[in-house]
Amino acid sequence: MKPSRMMLSALLLLLAVAPAMAQRDDFGAVDTIIAEAYQIDAKTWAVNISLFNDEEILAISLPMKFSAGKTRILADSTIFKGGRVEHFRVKTARADTATQCLTIGLINDIGISVPPVAPGRGRIATVFVSSTDGNPVENLMVDTTTTPPGNILQMVKPKVEEIIPAFVYRSLSVPTAEEKAKKN
User: Which of 5, 54, 100, 169 has CA atoms 20 to 30 A from the CA of 46?
Assistant: First the structure.
């Protein structure tokens, strides 16, 4: 094998294996979020977001980046109805048109007993994406990313360990002229 072919083969192998190496799940099988896009019309697509998990999930952070070549697009709406997280108390989808990103945030319980997502597989949300410049949307691409202020692709499972930190309040007093004179 020629050196250039060997390097190309090694590069292709690395590209094929790298995504799997980035995943980490210390609690069983690697949980997976799947984005499946389908075209509704020339300027509108939908992306079904599905989840495979083998343990209960309490919260999900899912930042995504959308691209369609030179066509400017917007993730203009997200629905959770009928999905596996429909019962969650917090379901947000924050779009950033400048970066063509969307951050989905899901939390099951905010003081009211709400069950986590049980192990299984199925749709958690559907995101609708449309052209903002009037051009047709061809070859929609979706990937995970990091969005401000530090949202990364992650999930939280029970048992969440709580840490209660110490809280210190200090009043900073301004020294009087007499106290300043004593220091000098």
Answer: 54
